[in-house]
Amino acid sequence: EDHADGVGMGIFNGDIGRIESIDPASGLVTVDFDGHRAAYPPDMMTQLELAYAVTVHKAQGSEYRAVILSAVEAAPMLLTRGILYTAMTRAKELLILVGDDQVVARMAANDRQQRRYSGLRARLARGGPEKEENHGPAPISSEPALPTQVSLL
């Protein structure tokens, strides 16, 4: 059964689906999310994001029939054994490594884990979030954002 936005169908932000059909007359796009179908009219297309390629972080928890891993120079914190392992284990049937074999060797040898700083310890030490008029989410970190990941295709 088709649902207009996947509500009640077990479709969540971050799920990856495959476009099943596009009705040229109405513009209705039907997407299959691993057996769950959802139909999106043109005014809801902003709910979808094309994913020809995704980062290793985005791919965590998902599997793909085939994965192409681009192994190229990047920030050392991105060239880790954990990232390589995650990328390689996303492939069900076929893994293609493209790039520099020395980069892959460095990744396999780099077992350092990146620390994540959420600022939680500092907030707890202050007694919780500061009282403000705006009750939106607290910032996760005051540190500058770091580049994302080695790409999967």
Helix and strand topology:
Layout: E1 18-22, E2 29-33, E3 36-40, E4 54-55, H1 56-59, E5 64-71, H2 81-88, E6 91-99, H3 101-109, H4 120-125, E7 151-152
Parallel strand pairs: 5-6
Antiparallel strand pairs: 1-2, 2-3, 4-7
Protein name: UvrD-like helicase C-terminal domain-containing protein
Keywords: ATP-binding, Nucleotide-binding
GO biological process, one term: DNA recombination
State the gist of this model.
With 153 residues, this protein is an alpha+beta fold. The protein is 18% helix and 24% strand. It folds into 2 domains: 1-48, no CATH class; 54-114 and 147-152, 3-Layer(aba) Sandwich (Rossmann fold), CATH 3.40.50.
Describe the protein.
It is a single chain. This protein is an alpha+beta fold and 153 residues long. It has two domains: 1-48, no CATH class; 54-114 and 147-152, P-loop containing nucleotide triphosphate hydrolases (Rossmann fold, 3-Layer(aba) Sandwich). The chain is built from four helices and seven strands. It has helices at residues 56-59, 81-88, 101-109, 120-125; strands at 18-22, 29-33, 36-40, 54-55, 64-71, 91-99, 151-152. The strands form three sheets. It has a three-stranded antiparallel sheet, with no helix packed on it. Helix 2 crosses helix 3. The longest helix is centred in the C-terminal third of the chain and has 9 residues, at 101-109. The radius of gyration is 20 Å and the shape is flat.
